Every structure is written in structure tokens, then in C-alpha cells.
Prior knowledge:
This protein is an all-alpha fold. Helix content is about 70%, strand content about 0%.
Amino acid sequence: xxxxxxxxxxxxxxxxxxxxxxxxxxxxxxxxxxxxxxxxxxxxxxxxxxxxxxxxxxxxxxxxxxxxxxxxxxxxxxxxxxxxxxxxxxxxxxxxxxxxxxxxxxxxxxxxxxxxxxxxxxxxxxxxxxxxxxxxxxxxxxxxxxxxxxxxxxxxxxxxxxxxxxxxxxxxxxxxxxxxxxxxxxxxxxxxxxxxxxxxxxxxxxxxxxxxxxxxxxxxxxxxxxxxxxxxxxxxxxxxxxxxxxxxxxxxxxxxxxxxxxxxxxxxxxxxxxxxxxxxxxxxxxxxxxxxxxxxxxxxxxxxxxxxxxxxxxxxxxxxxxxxxxxxxxxxxxxxx
Length: 337
């Protein structure tokens, strides 16, 4: 079987699994909403706008780390070009497999002299580091969520593994690069190998992003939930755990486009116990589903808006380098009359 035919089969299988996940979550949510008693909703649009802006700022933290990774490997693109590439490439995550994000970044940075392997490696480290930060925060704040379904509470080992992944890969990458350098010779182009210290700083970028995502979730809750919980340090830690766990879950389910379905299921499951004491189990489950769905719509609209805006604002490309050009040397003696 040819590679092209095999790739098409894999894509069809991934698309089928993604569709099954989305259909399953939609069916589950429909049942939850059917049992939900009437709750008076009065959405506050201004808070949802703030929620969308905070989502974009969170991704700016992660995009900035990616630009730093590129700079560390000699790809000196501007922050704007890196940010533009990052947000436009996010459209690729809605194709099952999440590989098209890398493909789009490679294609967009090729005119700036970035090699395919450098873009791919740095983008992979950026993604893994941001997910590792989410896993760390999820483990740290997991006890604040109280009683959880086993789908969440029984996955702490996986979260620890996710948290250790970027630094572990960084050490492994250093060893591979050292071995490859001996085999490839001193004149070979160096392989990308971000420093462990820079990857550790990436966890700070990642955690900063999740702090902003938590605020985004908080504004969405207060835009939708009647008589929401008081917003204090305890409530913030609960929402931090909920948003971190849901985001990591959406990443782990690789076939889910953009984490669609998986992220909403985990977020709703994490928020339901928080709403239950005040309004009862059925109403709490329904409101948690509404929050998860509206938050997804808010984030998607914000992402589409900024992505299309950045796509329309095309930067000036660098002049092409022609390696056959030579610099004329004028070494003639001046004519003496």
C-alpha cells in the first residue's frame, strides 16, 4: 500500500473517531439539558466579550514563548510575524490529528528562511510545554474540585506524565543531537535543540496563559449563571483546575478537532459539583453544559476574528536571496592624466 493511500485511510479513521466523539458528547449534553429545570437566563454580552479577549491574551503568552524558541534556534522573525503565524495556524487544529497546525506554520515561515525541522520542533515544544503547565496546575488544584467523576479523578498519573514530558524530551533531544553531531560531521547544519532552562521558562509562559484562561472562564460563568458563586481565591482555584483539566483533555484526545467535545465534557463535569449545592443536581448539570458550550463559542469566535484580521494584514516579505549574485570589486587604478 502506498504512503498516500495509507495517509488517506488514517485521515478517514481519525475523522470517523472525531465525529463519533462529537456525536456522543452532543447526545449526552442533549440528555442533560432535557432534564434541566427552567432556569432564568440573562446573558451579559459585555462579560462574554471580556472572556474572549482574555482567551486571546492567554494564547499571546504561548505564542510569545514559541517566538522565543524560534529565536533561540536562529530564526529571527519579528514578534508580529510569529504571533500572526501562531494564530492563523490555529485553524489547522480543527482538522483531526492536529498535524496541520505544524504544516501551516512550516509553510508560513518558509519565506523567512526557517527550516522545516526547526519550525516543527519548536512548535511541538511550545505545545507540549503549554499542556505540561496545564497538567501541573490541574494536579495542584485538583483537590479543590471536590467529588469528581472517575473520568477525571482517576487520571492523575496521566497528568503527571504530561507535566514531565517537555523537560524529559528536552533532555532526550540533547542526547540525540550530541550523537547525531558526531555522525553528521562538524560542517553539518545543527539540529534544533532548545535549552532546558528555556523550556522551564516555557512553563511560566504556559501557567500565565492558564491564569488568563481561568479569568476568561470566570467571566463566562458570571455572564450566564444566575447567582454565581462568590469570586474569591477558593473559587478561582476551582475554576483554574476546571479549565486546566479540560484543556489538557482536549489535547490528549488527538482525534478531536480542537478538543471539540472532550474539552466541553470535562469542563461541564468539573463545574457541576460547584453549582449543585445552590440549585440541585439537574439544574447544576444543565448550567455547566451551557457554560461549556457558550465558552467554546466565545473562544472560537474570538480566535476566528483575530485569525482573519491577522491574515488580512500581511507583513512585507524579506527580499529573496540570490546566491548566484556576486559583489563587483572595483580594483582598477585611477587614470592619471
